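Allow me, if you will, to draw on your knowledge of protein folds for a short while. I have a record of one protein: its chain in single-letter code and its fold written as discrete structure tokens. Kindly check, if you would, that the fold set down in the tokens agrees with what the sequence suggests. Thank you for your consideration; the sequence and its tokens are set out here:
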Amino acid sequence: MKGRIEVHAVISEKLLGTLKGMGLTEYEARAYTILASAGPSTAGDVSALANVPYSRVYDILSKLARRGWVEVQPGRPARYRARSPAEAIRLTKIEQDRKFKEASEVVVKELEPVYEQKAEAKKPDIWVIRGERSLLSRIREMLARAQVEALITLPTVTKELARLEPLLPILGAKNLALRVLTVEKLKLKPTLPNLEIRHRKPLFGGGVIIDGKEALLLLMSGEEKLGIWSDEVGLAKFAKEYFEYLWKDARK
């Protein structure tokens, strides 16, 4: 009885969980742990020590043998011997790599053509937006979609600032990081904990960049205000990189 208790002590929940994560069942993990701890044993011994139903122990030991975790020593009764953990893990990795390779080939063969067709069909949107009201509406939509950050550049701070302030509570409620770049030093009300403002001269254009995924470039065409909005990743990335370049040299 004393020896049995000592063998049971090595079956920790952490060890069992790890073995199950490697593909063994609860009973297989228990059986292997007992064999590794107690040495060659009969099926009856494994059943008793590992708390595995005797009606299932032979099937469990056979599966472990097929996996390469256990060796069978002929005799009456047969005895089962655990392979070293290092060897068992090596064999398991080889088998898992083989299965993963086969599964990967099936997935790529079946899904890659479908994915490529969809990727070709989904072209990035590029919109020209005209008029102050339409531009403000698009900025509101962009801020509503923002999850991480909003980058805003204002080449002038008169009407643009007056239009921007009512939108700040939206960002405050979402706890977004907000950076505003202007041509002159200013303060916005209400102030937000994640709001940072810098100024820099000159600024040749304005814009809004959301999460590095979509950008609205603000332009002037005579007296008309217009913008170019796009969710093209490359354009948004370029716009953000240019903003970071300007931000680096701007003053607080």
In short: The first strand starts at residue 41 and ends at 42. DSSP finds ten helices and ten strands in the chain.
